[in-house]
Amino acid sequence: MNFILKLLLSALAVVVLANILPGVSVDSYLTAVIVALVLSLLNFLVKPLLIIFTLPITILTLGLFLLVINALIILLADALVNGFAVSSIWWALLFSLLLSLLNSILHSFLKSENKK
């Protein structure tokens, strides 16, 4: 149940950011849910491998290369999901940063309601 709620909150964040950022578009709410699901799967399966393979450059850049890895994950989701489009890696980088920020804000509301 908690996973579904987090997935829906992530989909809401995707829709909000797609409406704000001109370089990102989502066709429908169902597409946003699929994007949130694909992003969670890619973050679970692909991201750890990318981090291991790029460990030297990540250490050299003091972890800033992880931002590039997040942008690549967004672009990979763009390639996998029809109806979701990101125009460049720069929009993917900005989308990734804002999505992380918005998800943390939305999930903090979820945690505060669970404590009551």
From TrEMBL:
Highest rank taxon of the organism: Bacteria
Residue spans crossing the bilayer: 28-46, 53-77, 89-110
Pfam family, one: Phage_holin_4_2
Keywords of the record: Membrane, Transmembrane, Transmembrane helix
Entry protein name: Phage holin family protein
